[in-house]
Amino acid sequence: MQISDHFTLEELSFSEVAVRRGIDNTPPTVVIVNLSLVAVVMERIRTLLGDRPIVVHSGYRSPQVNKAVGGVATSAHCRGLACDFVCPAFGSPAEAALVILKSDIDYDQLILEYGWVHIGLAQEGALSRREALTKRSPFTPYETGIKG
pTM for this structure? Predict the structure, then answer.
């Protein structure tokens, strides 16, 4: 189901881990509403990155999928308010994260992770922290700011 010009519900809720482990990762209605908000932000990011295609690595994760991938219980992915992505035609994840950081795109968290960019939105009614972090590997702590 198309939820914006360039993003589908299927790509924003697909999980290889769910498929491999037979876990249902179907988003409930409230999550679909949140994923629509994420899609709007992702459209803005796509435009910011020169209207180049974005590859989504992870969007919605059911609590079971989130646990299987080692995500924290409070992850915005579980509420359909986060997207991990790359845009190879634009450049590296660090280059994309820096462009987003300098933009007026509203986000709660922008994280340059080891191989992709994570963008998380605040829950409706909550203020966005506009927190920017870097995580260089699964074993290192988060660093403040985007470190290319």
Answer: 0.94
